[in-house]
Fold these 3 entries.
Entry 1:
Amino acid sequence: RDSGVSSLIADVADADLEMAMSTDGGIRLDVIGEFSVLRVVNLLRQFLGQKDVPFPTDRQLRECAEVMVAAREDARPSLKWSLFEFRRHKGCMYLLRSLPAIEELNIPLKGKDPIAFAGGVLTMELVEGRGIVIGDNLELRPRQGGESIGLQQSRTLKNIFQERDIPDWLRSRLPLVFENEVLVAVPGISSWNTDGVYAERLKPVTGESGWVFTFDIKDRF
């Protein structure tokens, strides 16, 4: 009888998970918000089992099921265990790899080879009509807070990140491109399909090519 009950629980969790999955691999909070805590816990177990990821403790899973759904919209609840974590973003919760600590390094940008940065890799590509036309005195820096970039008018990174729905766990990891102490580019993030942000005064004119910066990071598991 126990095996039959276990099989039924697994079948329900499979069906719940299929209903709750978003197109980009997240678990939709509006769906699991209709479930009991125990049902959400079983769904999370099924999800982690499919990913072949070790389980947190029962208590952690229960707290995660309660907090992820109940926390207010602007909160940033998370569950960390082993080398993984659950975080919330735009109405979904995502399974993430724990990323390495961010080194407070300024890196001269010389040459066009990929550069490892904060757990990801920055690449740059020359594209006609996009990006920026740049000189030689370039540097990559981590975010410190309070930065702004010259678009049609000066805009703070905080506002830009909010408008573009950049996940909060990536906002401090994005390598910022400075030219002569001035922020000129914020790379796009390939895994979240976000485009880069570039200083208006350095954008290429018609027929001219500019450098496009992309940050590749495997944050979602």
Entry 2:
Amino acid sequence: SLVGSICVVMPLSVGLCTAYRELYLGKNVNVVENTFKTGFANWKHNVGGMLLVSVYTFAWMLLLVVPGVIKAFAYALTPFILAERPELSANEAIELSMKMMDGHKMELFILFLIVFGLVILSVFTLFIGLLWIMPWMQVAMVKFYLYVKEDYESRATLVE
């Protein structure tokens, strides 16, 4: 079951990030096909990257919960980077995520608080509200990624 989760869920999480990014950008609207195609196209790379993120986050959580949560936010963009930049190693994708998230972790925390509040409210609809909340959350995460990526690239050009 754990091996199945690692072998299937981790690449699907990368694929889902990419599929929603493509949907948001209007490039390809077939979310299911994009999820599987992108997630399993570079399977070893995607599984390795997401497994490394899980191991790093777990290691930080062993220290204390707060540093673990902060690191989890720092690693949050890794699935997008793994899909968008397959030439990077898993560790390089994680490092790039940490650099990109520098100064943006609080914004992501606030976004997660909003989503958490909506999930709590969905209890009153017997969780039927999750049918709308989960896709909204994915699109919000895509929009957040594109915003942070643009900010990171603009900061990188200022340094050069």
Entry 3:
Amino acid sequence: MAWRCGSLAARFGRHGPRLHWLIRAQVLEDMLNTGLDKNKPRLFDPKEYVQTYTTCYNMCTQRSPYNWSEQLYQRHGETICDYLSKTVLPALKQKSGNALLTELTVRWSNHKIMNKWMRLFFMYLDRYYVKHHSLPTLDVAGLKHFKTLVYNEVKKDVVNAMIALIDAERDQALIDRALVKNTVELLEAMGMGSLDAYVTDFEDQLLASTKEYYARKSQEWVESDDAPAYLAKAEVALEAEAARVAHYLNGASEPKLLRVCEHEILELRETVLLEKEGSGCRALLANDRKADLARMYRLFGRVPNTPTHGLPPMAALVRAHIEQMGNDIIDRREARLSEGAKDSNQDPAFVKELLALHDKYLAVVSEQFGGNALFQKALKEAFVEFANRDVGKHTNAELMSSFCDRILKSGGEKLGDEDVEAFLEKTVQLFSYLTDK
């Protein structure tokens, strides 16, 4: 911008004295260097702007050899490049970390202002000369200059500073989210209509650093915490990552970021967590830890289902636990008979135990596991397995039939009509698991 009148007069001949826009360009540069007046609604008043626009208009509408459109287009680019390379880039090279991000966002904001006013000054040039010669618009040209001369020179340090801030926030530090958001907006702009720069220069490195961070964290958690405590931390971490995207990252990053987190925190640790002694899936079922079971189901439901990951391994453990509980009931009946208890077709206590077990885990499947088909199947297969274990001379089918007969007879069970209906319905459901009816 710092052009001198002598060189201008030589370049533009007798029109040199009329180039008011040169003065405006220098004023604009000075404003950007010293700080903009926030109380001033417009950088240039209408009279100043019209004078500058008119000068450019006159230079672009005369016949050759007095038409300066080509030279003005060239000077437009030289002016911006000169400012970026001699003023902006050196200022950024002196900074690092948060200070670099702060300086960059200020310089980017200033560049947008500069680009805007330069485009306004040269508007006629943009409308006709640029269009007629299929050249980049002044706006696009200014953006490209910033990307080439500034962004490409500092992007590595900028991305490292951004990731350092994000990792600090993951470790509970308070960071300037607006600073990260503003830098993300710059990255998006550098794609010039696409997310290429955001993805290639930043997102790929963010995903790699996220993988490393949660590989380390999940190892710490799995060594120090029981399964419920680990999963509680995992849930908080996943919610924080989603919030992070909402606060300052591009929305397209959310599924990628969460998939990396889910893989490191859940998928790779699933077998250990499900089978963790004293706090794994079967321990939670045995101790009626409903909230923890629901969280376990929610989290592993985020992992793609395979025989070894996602919900199938959890459903297999649920089936094994219910089957064991049912076999325990069968074993207790067998023990009573071996100890001399009467072997008759009447054993209401045994049938009620089976009904209570079914009620309990039917509720767990419905409430904690959202009625998921895998867990419904696990419940059914477990009951089919042990309900068909007959003990003594009478089959379980006979015992259930006798139980129904008992509650229907007056005096057999003192139950109200609603209770009778409920018992009948539950027994019929239990009866459906029998292969020999």
